Amino acid sequence: MTDKNNKTTLWELFISFAKIGVLTFGGGMSMLPMLQRECVESRKWATDEEMLDYFAIGQCTPGIIAVNTATIIGNKQRGLPGALVSTAGVIFPSVLIITVLASIILKYNNNSYVQKAFEGIRVAVCALILKSILTLAKKADKNMLYLLVTVGAFVALFFYKASPIAAVVATIIIGIIAYYAEKNSPKKNEEGK
Amino acid sequence: MIIIYLTLFWEFFKAGLFAVGGGMATIPFLFDIGEKTGWFTAAELADMIAVSESTPGPIGVNMATFVGTRVAGIPGGVIATAGLVLPSLIVVLLVITLLNKVYKMASVQTVFSFLRACTVGLIANALAQVAMLTFFDGKNVLIIPLVLFGVFFVLMNVFKKIHPILWIGLGAVAGVILF
Lengths: 193, 179
What we know:
The complex is a heterodimer of chains A (193) and B (179). Helices cover 75% and strands 0% of the residues of chain A. Chain A has helices at residues 10-23, 32-42, 48-60, 65-107, 112-139, 144-158, 164-184. In chain A, helix 1 packs across helix 4 (65-107), helix 3 (48-60) packs across helix 4 and helix 6 (144-158) runs antiparallel to helix 7 (164-184). The radius of gyration of chain B is 18 Å and the shape is globular.
């Protein structure tokens, strides 16, 4: 089990990622320090640079960043079984905790104090979502075309009740067109959805 | 019941496949699911988002488990989570295998830049949905929540290191006192 020659057991993968799942609140970027401490410093499953690369891939591929990073590291250590076990490990604590909490919350939902508390919480959630939108917007590449896509996606969903899937697919098509338009001529002209 | 399980799995599978940019990016898909199926209202979803932010683990996974449990009990929670995670598992394994060929292609990079822009718009819509419920009662703008929102937002930008769970706790206290 404690072989020096990178023969990590599936159990070790599961436990490490379950630990990361329990100890991180907030998801996304806030998981990076924990992933780094567990996978780079204590387990030596990856270097710092590799970790950042994995995180970048996790961010650009669909789904949850922490889960995607777990899949990549698990796959690197033990192939497909490793990927499956690490993914299961990182989601296991959430499923357990939320399942218990959900039944408690659903029970006390009609209490007027609980309802008022949730109304207050909703205000805080609005501020939190606005903050993550601004963080995302800061990280996104900036030009008129991107802005148009952002506004277009908002308008399509909010005013025209479009499905988010339609917006994503339309964006992929716009991205492909924009790429070839830019490649073929320096002057480009695209319209958003 | 089987139909609900299958629908849950399929809806979350789609969310997992099309939400690019982490947990927050799944929120617009959850609103869409609620609206389409009538399983939960936007207000209920906002509460579930709050709980998911205040409990350990990735937010996206927490939300999927919560929504699934609410709709169809414990099996529902497991099925929704599995549905959410499965597409990314497949895509990530494919990407990592083809990494050097595909991920570094300029065209793929361009598409991802556009997708990031789109995600910002989608999450802005999710915010607008929650905001409509929080700051309007159908006719009037509600002043107290709006002021509270301003206070929270300013404080969040002053004390950047403070964990979301604290803001949610403060929101709960403010709600009981002010509303």
